[in-house]
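This is your field. Pick holes in the following sequence-structure pair:
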Amino acid sequence: LGYEVTDAGNVHVAPAESLPQTNPRARYLPQIAEASEELARMVEQSLDEEALPVVLGGDHSIAIGSVAGMASYYRKRNKRIGLIWLDAHTDINTPETTPSGNIHGMPLAVLLGHGARELTQVAGFAPKVLPEHVAVIGARSVDPGEREMIRSLGVRVFTMSELDERGLSSVIEEAVDLASRNTAGIHVTMDMDFIDPFYAPGVGTPERGGATYRESHLAMEKIAESGAVLSVELTEVNPVYDTINQTAQLGVELILSALGKKIM
């Protein structure tokens, strides 16, 4: 593709098993907040160096840091960013609504300014994105508290049912239009559980009925075609649950599609 790639290094996070459990409504909050601040700085620095950030995770809580870094950079230039969130889940719980206490179920709420202050104030401001600039694609598991938040904020969620009825191309076109309208461009974040576990088994919270191998590539290809991509993020590749590196390999392919690779 002609890109020059620089590895900016890893964000160090201690293994969960070694950490004290202090808040059952927002597990490992101090450590995730600290890692998010570090990631935000790294992402913003890469933009200062005129690079296109590609962030690899890790659970979807990493989006708190990556989007914070993107939003901070463009905020200093009086611009906002759009967000396309490809995921089986809407990730818009708060400590008050969460059934699990897992922060990886909260990042979208945090980025919209709702949740623990330690997270909403990463990079020193909130919100990072506005509801009208967010498109969630592929949802098929939504908690009751999340439904209420989605309705109250007016976030556009394209469920898998809507993808089935309309077709993926139509949905992606609307999502790109929504996320790019009146913004500097789009941060694309894909949780690998957006894809059906038949094709991507190596995820922490699989949900049947997801995108196929080709649909996932088409989604990234069409987003890339828009010319509005500012940064790319891939999350929830869990080698513990993977089968002969199947999910990780697909993740690599999808990043290439998001960066403009086509069949011809």
Q: What stands out?
A: The mean pLDDT is 97. The longest strand covers residues 229-235.
